Each structure stands twice: as C-alpha cells, then as structure tokens.
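Morning F.,

Quick status update on the modeling queue. The single chain you submitted on Monday has been processed. Sequence for confirmation:
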Amino acid sequence: MARAAASAFAIACAVVALAPLPARAAAKDGAADAGSIEGCPIRSIAIEPRNVFDPMPPGPFGALYSLANRLHLRTRPGPNRRQLLLDRGGPWSARLAAESERALRRLDVLVPDAIRAAPAGDSVDVTVGTRDIWTTALEFTIESGGGRATGQVGVVESNLFGMAKSVSATYREDGVRVARSIGYGDPSGVLARSPRLSFEEACQIV
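Structure tokens below.
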C-alpha cells in the first residue's frame, strides 16, 4: 500500500511538471467601475482558494490531474487573509488590492486572481480568488568517481498542511560522512521577516 501511494505521488509530481498552467482569472463581467466604489466601506471579504488544476487543463491526462488535486492539500484561507491590506469595515482601495495581490504572490504557493469588489448598497463585498501551485519537490542525486559513491535524497514541501509553511528534509552521503538536515520557513506568519530555520547533523562513516 505504501509503495503504491509513493508511486502515485511520484507520477503526480511528473504530471504537474509537464502540465500547462491555467490562465490567470480575469475580473468578472459586470464588475463595478473602480472609481465609483473607491473608498466605500468593505462589508465582507470572501477567500476562494482553488486547487492546482482548477479549471482542469484539456488533454488526455485528466485522470492524473485529478489525482494530483486529491494528493494536494489546498491552501487554507488563513495564510491568504494575513497577506491582505484590506480589512472588513475599512475603505476599499484599488491600490491596496493590487499590493495585496503582490503579497499573496510572494508566498510562492499560489497564483492570485484580481481581487474584486462588488457593490452591496453603500458598501462593497470583496472576493479574493487564488489558485494553488504544486509545492512538493523530490530531490535525488547519485554520483560515483574515484572508487567512491556520493548521493543525496530529500523532499521539500512549501505549503505544509495548506498553511503556507515550508519544511525540508535531506540525507547526504559522500563515502566519508553522512549528513542529515531539516529546515523550516514561515513566510506567511510571525517568522516571515526571519531567516529560514535549519538544523544539520553529520557523522563520520566508520
């Protein structure tokens, strides 16, 4: 069972690498003129995260795209909301909406749509749509020379549990020593301005 799951995961990684990227969503038809709603109070902010393949790309790999979507944990609304410079009850600003889109893009785990505002009486309802990108990377290298073999295997997940937090684990062996390292990063939270945390342990091969 574990071997089958690992094989499916590896296939999904390969499919994601070859898949065409969905086009960035445009503003909906009938969206309000930006000038007419500038400064209106924000009544609500809806976060609408979409999966990696949403919409589904055309072609013969639909089943594999669906598998990749099932294996991927969609980004939770919390990390997206923390990047917004707009608040419920505050004024709508097209400039702050554009800056919020750039902040979302810097998370490197999703592609934001245009942040939209729709009139709701004397207020506006804001919609923040995003589409996830594939965030799991497998690393495997092996080399030999001079009668010595070296190799490295590792995994990096940039959107752990859909929380926009990154973790990595690496194992390296060069014939002389073995090194194991782990890393953690939190671009969406309190550690966003701090360097990535890492730990490495090495030991001599006897």
